[in-house]
Amino acid sequence: MSGTDGTDDPTLELLPIDISAYRNGNTGIDYVHSFNSGQPGPNVLINALTHGNEVCGAHALGVLFEDDIRPTRGSLTLSFANVDAYHSFDTDNPTASRFVDEDFNRLWSDEILDGPRQSSELTRAREIRGVVAAADYLLDLHSMQLPCPALMLAGTAPKGRRLALAMGVPEHVVTDPGHAAGPRMRDYGPFAEAEPAQTALLIECGQHWADSSRRVAIQAVFHYLDALGIIDGADASPYLVPTPPEQRLIEVVGPITIQTDAFSFAQSYTGLEVIPKAGTLIGHDGPQPIVTPHDDCILVMPTHKPRKGQTAVRLGRFVD
Ligand SMILES: [Zn+2]
To answer: How far, in Å, is the centroid of ligand 1 from the Cα of 67?
Structure first.
């Protein structure tokens, strides 16, 4: 199934890079490389291309390879996830390369991964699940359909927001429970639980093909490695944001999951709009009006392609 109806008309400032040089990794899994410092420390994972059309992550990993970034303690693993989708990128229909058969980021439970179902994405997820399971820290690099400032999706456990705040970027940190349609990589196993130390973050770096998303992704990976203290400060410093923003926490109560084949928004929202009054109409799901549940309600990542069973938008509030 294609990921798009072909009606997009995006400006393609940022295009895929050639990642063929990164195919032969040292882990026995194509497009997965792991560097071990030989010193005690955490297993740190950075993942790109969970969605094949979200090219900024490939650019950021490319910089880590070009700069020969190596951990000074623990290990650093770099993975390109949905490479088959990425390699289907077509400038005439760039959204279609989001996935081959299904959303790679709704498959991350043992029940699904151990189940009988087959798809291009399940095959790849089964290949790399051991790498994800072995990670003490995960940063998963994404981008968005609509132009919106970067968002860090930190999950609901306090450990996620602690790491996001330790990174210092981006400005907006969202605590959210994920999607009804299926668990994300960042929700896999202990990442989603409150007590275990394993911590995962998902960053939405900006619009898929905006050049600024590349810069945000590169800054994010270096802030992450710097916050975890696993690379030389001199390696990170050229890429760190000189004056990090004052970060703001957005608490998402729950996603609005689409129930009908006729969902529409009342306006063309792009994300981070703050709706002042509770009860304001923001859309319809079939005949059902969708209204904001509280004052100063923030719209987080509204979809521009509503589909039944998927998330339409997440509603949140600033927590200061
Ligand atoms: Zn994504």
So the answer is: 25
**CA pair distance 296, 318, nearest whole angstrom:** 8
Q: Which CATH superfamily is domain 20-246 in?
A: Zn peptidases (3.40.630.10)
- The CATH number given to 250-319 is 2.40.50.630
Residue 143 Cα to ligand 1 midpoint, Å, equals 5
Under the banding of pLDDT at 50, 70 and 90, the label for residue 3 is: very low
Of the candidates 118, 37, 21, 132, the one whose C-alpha atom is nearest the C-alpha of residue 81 is 132
Report how far ligand 1's centroid is from the alpha carbon of 248 (Å).
22
CA 141 to centroid of ligand 1, rounded, Å: 7
Query: What pLDDT digit, counting tens, does each position of 50-101 carry?
Result: 999 999 999 999 999 999 999 999 999 999 999 999 999 999 999 999 999 9
Domain ranges of the chain: 20-246, 250-319
The span from the CA of 272 to the CA of 206, in Å, is 12
